[in-house]
Amino acid sequence: MPLPFDHQRARIAARIGLAALAIVAVGVGGLAMASVTRAPASDAATTFPTIVPEPGEKVATFIGDEYSTAGSAADGVDPWTSALSAANDWNEDNLSIAGTGYLARPDAASCPNGYCPNLLEQVPEVIASGASVVVVAAGDNDASEDPQAVAAQILAVYRALAVGLPTAQIVAVGPSSTDSTTPARVLAIDGAIRAAAKDTGADYVSLLSPPVFSEDMVSDSGELNAAGAAAIQARVQAAL
């Protein structure tokens, strides 16, 4: 699991100007290793460590919720992020955090320093990665948040990524649902992600039309089984 930002250094307001958000450098309390190597920053108090890819390789940075973390799949099952990366010869850099959203934050108790960032607050770290591909997969945890605030936050995330990584492929994966009828708020979040992707030139991926999940693909503990992980990977792959 990736370590969260330091509270005082990583707080970034949703209304920060896009240009400032794209270049802001903030410190981190720690940064987990995915399948990439990060070189120490020259000034850890003001900048992120940077990814040092092997010559010719593509780094794909993932930010998302519990369905996208390195521990999202059941024992013995590759997370869909890893399977997707392997299929496309990407070097995976997974910064996903269980419980996060565009506006929602995980329970502070789940983070070592008592604070977890939402997706907008992770954007500077993503930009610092210099990734060739960025996959954002979240939205479910925002269903209980104010819809207008969530929509504004979604747009801010994709605009900031577009400014900060103008040559990267940005992939916007919408929320999912195992309900027989998708809740209206989840549909609204999905629509806001679709609109933000169109606004910024990102590739939108729907997990709702048609529904990618059935109840038997997710365990009681929230882990994806092999069928669930494969279903998300296939849906995202088809959109690339």
Please identify the oligomeric state: single chain
Give the strand order of the largest sheet, numbering strands 1, 2, ... along the chain: 4-3-5-6-7
How many strand units? 7
The residue ranges in which pLDDT falls below 50 over 5 or more consecutive positions are 1-49
The biggest beta sheet reads:
5 strands, parallel
Shape: globular
- The proportion of residues forming helix, as a percent range, comes to 25-40%
CATH homologous superfamily (4th level) name: SGNH hydrolase
Query: Mean pLDDT score, rounded?
Result: 78
CATH topology: Rossmann fold
- In what range is the share of β-strand residues? 5-15%
The run of helices and strands is HHEEEHEHEHEHEH
Query: Can you tell me the CATH architecture?
Result: 3-Layer(aba) Sandwich
Count helical runs. 7
Cα-based radius of gyration, to the nearest Å: 16 Å
Structural class: alpha/beta
CATH class: Alpha Beta
Query: Separation of termini?
Result: 26 Å
- How many separate structural domains? 1
Write the layout of secondary structure elements.
Blueprint: H1 7-10, H2 18-23, E1 38-39, E2 50-51, E3 58-64, H3 80-87, E4 90-94, H4 119-129, E5 133-137, H5 147-164, E6 169-173, H6 184-200, E7 203-205, H7 226-239
Parallel strand pairs: 3-4, 3-5, 5-6, 6-7
Antiparallel strand pairs: 1-2
How would you portray this structure in words?
It contains seven helices and seven strands, in the order ααβββαβαβαβαβα. It has 240 residues and is of the alpha/beta class. The protein has a single domain, classed as Rossmann fold. The chain has a five-stranded parallel beta sheet with strand order 4-3-5-6-7, sandwiched between helices. Helix 3 crosses helix 7. The chain is globular. The N terminus is likely disordered.
